[in-house]
Amino acid sequence: MRWLNDRPDQDAHDVQGIRTMVAIARGRRGTGRSEQAFWRAAGQHLERLAYRRAGWEELVKTECGISRSRANELIQIGRGKSLTEARSKTAERVKKHRENKGRNR
Predict the structure, then answer these.
(1) Which range of residues forms the domain containing residue 91?
(2) For 102, which DSSP code?
(3) CA–CA separation, 11 vs 6, rounded Å?
């Protein structure tokens, strides 16, 4: 966690917030307990980080293990998009990608 010692306090706070909220939300998946609020909080931390910092995608990937597309999806959830909406859009996109990938082989 060397990075957290080299950056401004607010960036470190947001990175830690993203890690924490994602871990809690993943732990609640499938338990019947609400995970929406935790995904939303992670998205809000991501949005603040993206607003403040150029190159935020690489930082989030290395420090939080979240891809750019997932980070953008979480930012949308942080802005108020429901989990159901976000998941259905992602499922459509993945299905289309897999169909196109199969045709190219």
Answers:
(1) 2-103
(2) H
(3) 10
Q: Is the pLDDT confidence value at 3 over 70?
A: no
Task: Give the whole-angstrom CA distance, residue 74 versus residue 39.
Answer: 7
Q: Which token pair is 34?
A: 């609400």
Quote the pLDDT of residue 74: 94
DSSP string for the chain: -HHHHHS-HHHHHHHHHHHHHHHHHHHHTTTTS--HHHHHHHHHHHHHHHHH-TTHHHHHHHHH---HHHHHHHHHHHTT--HHHHHHHHHHHHHHHHHHHHHT-
Looking at the 3D structure of the chain, how many domains does it have?
A: 1
Q: What is the pLDDT of residue 1?
A: 44
pTM for the whole structure: 0.78
Has residue 102 got a pLDDT over 90? no
- Please list, in sequence order, all residues whose beta carbon lies within 8 angstroms of the beta carbon of residue 62, skipping any fewer than 6 positions away: 3
Q: Is the model's pLDDT at 2 over the cut of 50?
A: no
Structure tokens at 52: 């403040």
